[in-house]
């Protein structure tokens, strides 16, 4: 499976490493915003001997021409909300999209939705396999304890400016007011921790997920990319993919769901 990666930052560079290490994947190219390492290979920057994942600068690429000669099966996006404008041409050649952008601008999420009318698009603000089990477990517990008080605590590295997109998605899934029930902590170099606290009269139940290494995001993105191969056009999520596994449904029964 050939992959084009948007973003080579804190997360994208680690995701690139996971893709290169995966025997079923080939990293064809990497897109980034700055002029750092343009023309070099991500593999070499990551310490591999071979050449894989040539790095391009988004402002130096003519996207009307680029995808003609640089087709990939799946584009994985760990860059920025606006990057959706840079791969809309790719879907004309059949590329599918896995977006991990956690907080989209309204305009860009609508553009991503438009792309799902032409190709298969999987969007997940937290693409770790573990966080999606946390969401399923939280929804199940809420059914068992509908009157519980619920608070969401998200912890990230000090430099993260936006509220966790994962926490906002969990709040949505549980029908909670995002302003009231999402509590953010920014300390040190925390990669990503999400805790759902259920307060009951005589006990407290905590469901916690913590990413210790950004490789977790890469593994989840590769899982999503392999899963979305062969899917028809439409919008999909990690919850869908994993809940199908948990429920034992066959993938080919899958219908796209409007999730964006
Ligand atoms: N869904 C999930 O599970 C996860 C999602 N994320 C999300 O991934 C995104 C990136 O996070 P993080 O790696 O920490 O951020 P960084 O700022 O470290 O990296 C951003 C990367 O995107 C590149 N970039 C910025 N704008 C564009 C553009 N228009 N086109 C192409 N590349 C661009 C930057 O290029 P350059 O390096 O040249 O400046 C950089 O390489 C965020 O939205 C974050 O929330 C992160 C972790 C997990
Ligand atoms: O910015 C990050 O790093 C992360 N962002 C995602 C989010 O906002 O939920 C997912 C993960 O927690 C790391």
In what range is the share of β-strand residues?
15-25%
**CATH classification class of the largest domain:** Alpha Beta
How many discrete domains? Answer: 2
- Give the strand order, joined by hyphens, for the main sheet: 3-2-1-4-5-6-11
Poorly predicted ranges: 252-260
Under CATH, the topology of the largest domain can be stated as Rossmann fold
Through-space gap between termini: 25 Å
Total strand count, please? 11
Q: Give the radius of gyration.
A: 19 Å
CATH superfamily of the largest domain: NAD(P)-binding Rossmann-like Domain
What small molecules accompany the polymer chains? NADPH dihydro-nicotinamide-adenine-dinucleotide phosphate, the ligand O=C(O)C1=N[C@H](C(=O)O)C[C@H](O)C1
Helix content: 25-40%
Structural class call reads: alpha/beta
Query: Order of helices and strands, N to C?
Result: EHEHEHEEHEHEHHEEEHEH
**Given the C-alpha coordinates, what overall shape results?**
globular
GO cellular component, one term: cytosol
Enzyme class: oxidoreductase
Pfam families: DapB_C, DapB_N
GO molecular function: 4-hydroxy-tetrahydrodipicolinate reductase
